[in-house]
Design goal:
The chain is mainly β. It has five helices and 54 strands. The strands form 13 sheets. Strands 21, 23, 24, 26, 29, 30, 35 and 38 form an eight-stranded mixed β-sheet that branches. Strands 40, 42, 43, 45, 48, 51 and 53 form a seven-stranded mixed β-sheet that branches. Strands 19, 20, 22, 25, 36 and 37 form a six-stranded antiparallel β-sheet that branches. The longest helix is centred in the first third of the chain and has 27 residues, at 221-247. The two termini are 28 Å apart.
């Protein structure tokens, strides 16, 4: 598509002193055929430096609009002398894909200023050590050369750095070492007067600084040696007393952290979740509070054996089904802390998603849970068995592969406690979740645990609570954690959509929905729900209560009074599936449902994204019905316009695959005989709606599927970027949904556009 506007900046290069204002003019020429609104944006410099007189310009065809661009770089202390490149960008509202930009530069001129601080000015000792602190208060780099002198040349000077480079608004300390060439053996000190000359490279000011060195006699070094030995002994005794009183139980003398619990190393295989079960109990006489005023502190280490994974993940869950966000650890990471005092977050509110998948297989499988060895003899007495609670459970197919909803796996039982028993055990899950990586060596993981309090940045083991490990992962074949049956949805009906098997932009595809009662022999029998499946000693189950709306519609029943007035389902759900093997196609599509009374539902707010034949679900509850006039507004109206038709230069109204009552009629003008040009709101570029054109009475239900791609890169005359999709639908537990072609119309109905 040809350019519809031009952008110009006068002048391109600007110069200014700090605190000085400078201006340029931005001009936009509308070379198109319609009124357009252009949004201006300046980037590349600090936003506080620049100001636009107008950020949005309305320009008629063939005319030029302008906006003043003002730069005001801050004062010297805030602005560095340099060349600052910036970009001016203009975007058309009528053609969102068209953007023009220009590059320019703002040159900030240098300002030189500085001052010195020499300290100390008098030194007594075997040699003099002075520091000249040079402060560059300007906005450009300065280089200083220092030279030291004494009468009769009685000192040698070492100056570092030499020369000294000082950046704007920074300080550099120049160390000056004056070593006397002649010093008395004993007796009075010898006074040496020192002169330092400081010369900058870009400024005319030369500074002269004075200092004094009282050179001491040679035979007093033993005083310093005695003081040094006494200081070392004092520090050693002080640290010993501090360690004995405060840190003896948690730190060794060399400040190495101690750990009351250390587990034997085990191999953390990829695709396996390793649970560590433990309990935290208050000591006798201590009142137990909730949440616990503690941290759980864990040290997880494994050696680098050449080809071992570089990271692992930890997840913590308490006995009440609360979780803490997972921690990712590297091999060299230090101990990690979980704040138990925060009370955690309900596990059902945390999206663990893909970290619990076995990425070593294609298609992806659910991770397994390792079996356990009981290490606490009291565990069998207290519990009778050791129960593993899975973090998440996924729906799987008959071959064990995980079923996805879009990009996320479909949940069978999500988070928390699945058993009905009262649990007292905490669980720390160790997960080798290296996505799409293959390693020859399994990391041999060593874990150490403790409960602690945090006090003034010092970690102490809490003396009021005990941590006892009940069970740890053992070697052997892990127990399967996923369902052996499927969680596939039994759809009522499905069809292929599109023009020449492609869902092209600019066409609304229409199917009629018909419903029949499942109790009627003519309808299909209801689909079977999932069942409990025991998984051996690990006691892992899959429940019939899924989170997918299309798997729970059998539990939603319409209100009896509403059923009597207008028989129909309480919910309609489905999904759109891109077929595998396609190249780069359009990235979104959405669904609009309309009932005979003119009520609408839309999935526009949850646009779908292509991901290798994965479904993009939608679900419409009839109780949430709103008039189409309320649903089809603002952004939704964008998708009822073909923005880049292959046979026209101007946007056109969408067409409908079947001659049905359009969703709404858009406004057009008859500038050319026999054709309408769409009318748009000048500020929002949203198409105008013909008054009263939302239909309120139809003979049947209609399902509209729209290609949501509105960019020129997704549109071509051959439609090679249009996706091939399938549509699935399902009613509720009482009503079955079927997809049909819309019934032929007996009378003429309005076209999608009308003259306003």
């Amino acid at each position: 598509m040809s350019a519809t506007f031009n952008l110009k900046l006068t002048p391109n290069d600007l110069e200014a002193m700090p605190g000085q204002e400078v201006q340029a003019v931005i001009e936009v020429e509308n070379s198109g055929h319609i009124l357009d609104v252009y949004t201006l944006r300046v980037s590349g410099t600090d936003p506080s430096w620049s100001d636009l007189s107008s950020q949005s310009i309305t320009v008629y065809p063939g005319e030029v609009g302008s906006s003043a661009l003002t730069f005001l770089p801050p004062d010297v202390s805030e602005t560095i002398a340099d060349r600052y490149n910036f970009r001016v960008e203009a975007t058309s509202r009528n053609f969102p894909g068209e953007t023009h930009s220009l590059c320019a530069a703002l040159v900030v001129q240098p300002v030189y200023s500085f001052f010195h601080d020499l300290h100390p000015t008098r030194v007594v000792g075997t040699e003099g050590r002075f520091t000249d602190s040079i402060y560059n208060t300007g906005n450009a780099d300065l280089t200083f050369v220092l030279q030291g002198e004494t009468p009769d040349g009685l000192c040698d000077f070492d100056i570092e750095p030499h020369p000294a480079e000082v950046r704007p608004q920074e300080k550099v300390d120049v160390e000056v070492r004056a070593r006397p060439t002649r010093r008395p053996w004993f007796g009075k000190n010898k006074t040496l007067n020192i002169t330092l000359t400081v010369t900058p490279d870009k400024a005319p000011q030369v500074a002269t600084l004075a200092a004094t060195l009282e050179a001491s006699s040679r035979l007093r070094l033993w005083h310093l040696a005695m003081i040094f030995v006494a200081l070392v002994l004092t520090l050693a005794l002080a640290y010993t007393g501090f360690w004995a009183v405060f840190e003896r139980e948690d730190l060794t003398y060399l400040r190495q952290e101690t750990w009351p619990i250390g587990l034997e190393p085990f191999g953390a295989a990829e695709g396996v979740v390793f649970p560590i079960l433990f309990q935290i109990s208050a000591k006798e006489g201590i009142e137990e509070v909730s949440p616990l005023p503690l941290h759980l502190r864990a040290s997880v280490r494994w050696p680098n054996t050449g080809d071992a994974p570089t990271s692992l993940a930890l997840v913590l869950r308490d006995p009440d089904g609360n979780c803490w966000e997972h921690r990712h650890l590297t091999r060299v990471a230090g101990p990690v802390q979980f704040p138990l005092f925060s009370g955690g977050t309900p596990c059902s509110s945390i999206a663990f998603n893909r970290i619990l998948l076995d990425h070593s297989h294609r298609p992806l499988l659910a991770s397994k849970y390792a079996p356990l060895d009981v290490v606490s003899p009291s565990a069998l007495d207290d519990h009778g068995h050791v129960h593993i609670e899975p973090i998440d459970q996924y729906c799987v197919r008959a071959d064990g592969s995980v079923i996805f909803d879009g990009k996320n796996p479909r949940m069978a039982a999500s988070h928390g406690l699945n058993s009905h028993e009262e649990e007292e055990l905490w669980t720390l899950y160790v997960i080798n979740n290296n996505d799409d990586q293959e390693h020859e060596d399994v990391p041999q993981v060593s874990i150490r645990l403790k409960v602690s309090v945090l006090d003034k940045e010092k970690t102490d083991r809490d003396r009021n609570y005990d941590l006892e490990v009940v069970a740890v992962p053992s070697s052997g074949t892990p127990a399967v954690s996923s369902d052996s049956s499927t969680c596939e949805i039994a759809w009522d009906d499905n069809v292929r959509l599109g023009t020449d098997q492609r869902l092209i932009e600019g066409v609304v595809y229409v199917k009629a929905l018909e419903f029949c009662q499942r109790s009627d022999p003519a309808c299909s029998p209801p689909a079977e729900t999932s069942r409990y499946v025991a998984e051996g000693d690990s006691e892992l189950h899959v429940f019939s209560g899924h989170s997918d709306p299309c798997l729970i519609t059998s539990g939603i029943e319409a209100d009896a009074a509403n059923q009597a007035r207008s028989p129909g389902p309480s919910m309609v759900c489905g999904d759109i599936i891109w077929e595998k093997g396609q190249d780069d196609t359009g990235t979104s599509a959405f669904v609009i449902l309309r009932d005979p009374a003119g009520n609408c539902w839309t999935s526009l707010e949850s646009k779908t994204v292509q991901d290798e034949d994965q479904p993009s679900p939608f679900a419409f509850e009839m109780a949430t019905a709103q008039p189409c006039e309320e649903i089809l507004r603002e952004e939704t109206l964008w998708y009822l316009v073909s923005w880049f038709p292959t046979d026209a230069n101007l946007p056109q109204p969408v067409s409908y695959s079947y001659p049905v009552e359009p969703l709404v009629r858009l406004c057009g003008s008859d500038e050319e005989a026999g054709s309408f040009h769409l009318v748009f709101d000048e500020s929002t570029v949203i198409p105008a709606v013909y008054p009263g054109s939302y239909p309120t009475e139809m003979a049947e239900w209609h399902l509209f599927v729209v290609n949501g791609s509105i960019y020129v890169t997704d549109v071509s005359e051959a439609h090679e970027y249009a996706p091939r999709v399938s549509l699935h639908v399902k009613g509720d537990g009482n009503w079955k949904a079927s997809l049909k072609d819309p019934s032929p119309r007996d009378t003429a109905h309005p076209e999608p556009v009308a003259q306003c």
